[in-house]
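hey so i finally got around to running the thing on that chain from the lab meeting. sorry it took forever, my laptop kept dying and i had to restart like 3 times. anyway pasting the input first so we r on the same page abt which one it is
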Amino acid sequence: MFKYLFQSMNEKLDGILASLPASHGTKQQALLEQLQELRDISDGIIEEWLLFEEKMAKAGHRPQPDAAGSLPETTAAKPSFDLDDDPFGESPAQSMQYQRGEGYFKLYMFAEAAREFGSVVREHPEFLQARLYLALCFLQSENVAEAYSHLQILISLADDGRLKAVAYNALGCVQAVKGNVEMACECFRTSHALDPEFKDPVYNLKACQIDGGVLQLGVAIG
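ok and heres what got predicted. didnt touch it at all, straight out
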């Protein structure tokens, strides 16, 4: 079903993109309206998919009966963020905004993801995983100043070594983008010292020594 839906949407989009450069006046406006309609349909599909994924995640943690036919006393759902378990339980990691943010992040829709994670951070400023995601969204969108600000806050508040290591690695990427190679290297060294099992800062340290080296942000999504 979705295969044919997306096939028709792609065909319509191709037609719009082919006609748009040479269009003017009312014809251009009509094409832009059609483009917006496709965008609205796409956003609607994404929203429904995210809701479905959230329900599927809950179904995956459904208690199973034991050999005697009874259910275990508790089965805790865990967030998909691949750092430490969320100390806040089902809130805010299981909130709709956080789940949507993760979904958008996986789809490389960083502006939309930043909107959702920003809502979580405003409501729960102490929830550092959401702040890290928000900083990475800003970094991916080349909003370096905002990324730097959130990473500085995160580093000042984080106690967990793994989370702090990821933050320092991202901060090193910020410094590298700004052209501060020495400061970037220092951040990568700090990241590696905090978590020697975390390999991305090692790769980034080498990348800083190579012209055109590719930096690794180092966030793992479940």
